UniProtKB/TrEMBL annotation:
Keywords: ATP-binding, Kinase, Membrane, Nucleotide-binding, Phosphoprotein, Transferase, Transmembrane, Transmembrane helix, Two-component regulatory system. It holds the Pfam family HATPase_c. It is an enzyme of class 2 (transferase). GO terms for molecular function: kinase activity. It comes from the Bacteria. Gene3D superfamilies: Histidine kinase-like ATPase, C-terminal domain (3.30.565.10). This is histidine kinase. Its EC number is 2.7.13.3. Residues 190-395 form the Histidine kinase domain.
Length: 409
C-alpha cells in the first residue's frame, strides 16, 4: 500500500470516528432534552391545576402564596384561551406588550400574542381547565428558553468543533506542505549540485576519447554527448525547483518534437510515436522544465503499454480562449475513472518500484510555473488514456493554415 492510500485510509477512519463522537453527542443531548420536556410537561400540568384552584378560591391567601411560588419557578410561557380561541389570560410573555388597545402603559400588539399562541399549539398538546365561573378553558405552553437553547446547543457545539478542526487541519496541512516543499527543494538543489562533478568528468572523458581515438564523427560518441547534454538538462531542472523559472516564447510543436526525437531512440521499437496538430502555435515556456513534463507523461504512456502500441501527441490551438491544448494519448491499460484525480497525488503509483512523484511534479510544473492546467481528459480500461495540458498562448494572431494531417516523428 502506497503512502497516499494509507493517508486516505487514516482520513476516512478519523472522519468516521469524529462522526461517531458527534452522533453520540447529539444522541445524549437529545435524551437530555426529552427528559427536560417531560419535566416541563409535568410542571405545566401542576401550574394548570394550581391556577384552576386559585380561580375557584381566589380569596384563599395560602393558595395564592403557593401559586406565586410555582409561578416564580415556572420558566415557561403560558396562554389560556376560551373554547372559541380568544385569549383569556397569559403568563410569562413579554410584559411590555398588551392585547388591549385602551392600555396606554404598554405596547398594543395583538399579533404578538396570536403568534405566540400559534407556536404553542405547534409544540405541545393543550390542557383543559375550569375558570372562575366553572367555564371551560384551554391552556397552552411553549418550551422554556433554556430548553430551546439546549435543542440547538449540540449542533452549535459540533459546528464550532468542526470549524476548529477544519481550521487546524488546513493550517497544519499548509505548514506540513511548506515544510515538505522546503525539503524537496533542498534535495533537488543538492542533487543538481552533486550531478555537476560527474557530468563535468564525463564531458572530459568524451573529449579524451574523441582526441585519442579520432572519433569526432563516431555516432556512438555523438549519442554519448547527447546523453551528457541530457544529464546537464536534468541537473538544470533540479536547480530550478523552488525558484521562479524564466519563461521564454517557444513554438510548442518544435519543443515537443525535439524531445520526442531524443526519447524515441531510447524506447522500444514496438512503440510508435505520432506528433500532429498545429505547428505554429506559441506559448511562454521554460524549456528544461517543460521537457520534464513531456518526459514524465511519455514515460507513463510507455509503462502503460504492455508490448506494442502508439503514443499520439496532438497540439491544438483554441483561438476563442487564446489557449494551447496538448493531448497525449496512449493505447495502454487505461485508468479507472475513480483514479483520475488520484494519479496526481504524491506516492500514487501502479509500479512496484515507482516513487509516485512523476505526475505530481508534472502537475506542479504546469500549474505553478506555467499557470496552466493538466488533467486526465479521457481513459478507458484496456484501450488507453489521454492527458490534456492547457497553456496560455503567448500571442494573438489569425488562424494558420493547417492540414491537420499527422506526421510520424
Amino acid at each position: 500500500m502506497n503512502p497516499y492510500q494509507k493517508k486516505k485510509r487514516w482520513k476516512v477512519f478519523l472522519l468516521l470516528f469524529a462522526g461517531l463522537i458527534g452522533a453520540a453527542s447529539v444522541f445524549y443531548s437529545d435524551f437530555f432534552v426529552k427528559k427536560m420536556e417531560r419535566e416541563e410537561a409535568t410542571q405545566f400540568l401542576l401550574w394548570v391545576k394550581v391556577a384552576e384552584q386559585r380561580m375557584k378560591m381566589y380569596d384563599n391567601e395560602q393558595l395564592s402564596e403557593v401559586f406565586e411560588t410555582i409561578k416564580k419557578n415556572n420558566k415557561m410561557d403560558v396562554i389560556i384561551t376560551n373554547p372559541d380561541g380568544s385569549i383569556y389570560l397569559w403568563d410569562g410573555l413579554d410584559t411590555t406588550k398588551t392585547l388591549y388597545p385602551d392600555n396606554k402603559t404598554k405596547e398594543y400588539d395583538s399579533v404578538y400574542f396570536a403568534r405566540q399562541l400559534s407556536k404553542m399549539k405547534e409544540q405541545h398538546k393543550p390542557a383543559k381547565m375550569r375558570g372562575i365561573n366553572d367555564e371551560e378553558l384551554i391552556a397552552y405552553y411553549k418550551d422554556s428558553s433554556i430548553l430551546t437553547q439546549l435543542r440547538f446547543f449540540p449542533y452549535i457545539q459540533l459546528g464550532v468543533i468542526a470549524l476548529f478542526l477544519i481550521t487546524a487541519y488546513v493550517g497544519f496541512s499548509a505548514a506540513r506542505r511548506a515544510e515538505r516543499d522546503q525539503e524537496f527543494v533542498g534535495m533537488a538543489k543538492e542533487t543538481a549540485h552533486q550531478l555537476g562533478t560527474p557530468i563535468s568528468s564525463l564531458m572530459a572523458w568524451v573529449e579524451l576519447i574523441k582526441t585519442r581515438f579520432d572519433a569526432e564523427e563516431d555516432p556512438l560518441v555523438a549519442e554519448m554527448e547527447n546523453d551528457i547534454q541530457r544529464l546537464e538538462i536534468i541537473a538544470d531542472r533540479f536547480s530550478k525547483i523552488g525558484s521562479k523559472p524564466i519563461l521564454e516564447d517557444h513554438v510548442v510543436y518544435a519543443v515537443i518534437k525535439g524531445f520526442v526525437q531524443y526519447f524515441k531512440v531510447r524506447t522500444s521499437d514496438k512503440i510508435n510515436f505520432v506528433l500532429t496538430g498545429d505547428t505554429q502555435v506559441r506559448a511562454m515556456l521554460s524549456g528544461p522544465l517543460f521537457d520534464w513534463v513531456i518526459e514524465n507523461l511519455l514515460k507513463n504512456a510507455v509503462n502503460a503499454i504492455d508490448n506494442d502500441g502508439t503514443i499520439t501527441i496532438n497540439i491544438i490551438e483554441n483561438l476563442a480562449k487564446e489557449e494551447v491544448l496538448i493531448d497525449i494519448t496512449d493505447t495502454g491499460k487505461g485508468i479507472p475513472r475513480s483514479k483520475f484525480d488520484t494519479v496526481f497525488q504524491p506516492g500514487f503509483t501502479t509500479r512496484k518500484r515507482g516513487w509516485g512523484l512523476g505526475l505530481t511534479l508534472t502537475k506542479r510544473i504546469v500549474e505553478n510555473y506555467h499557470s496552466g492546467q493538466i488533467f486526465v481528459k479521457d481513459s478507458e480500461l484496456g484501450k488507453g488514456t489521454t492527458f490534456r495540458i492547457i497553456l496560455k498562448s503567448s500571442i494573438t494572431y489569425e488562424p494558420t493554415t493547417n492540414t491537420g494531417l499527422p506526421s510520424v516523428v
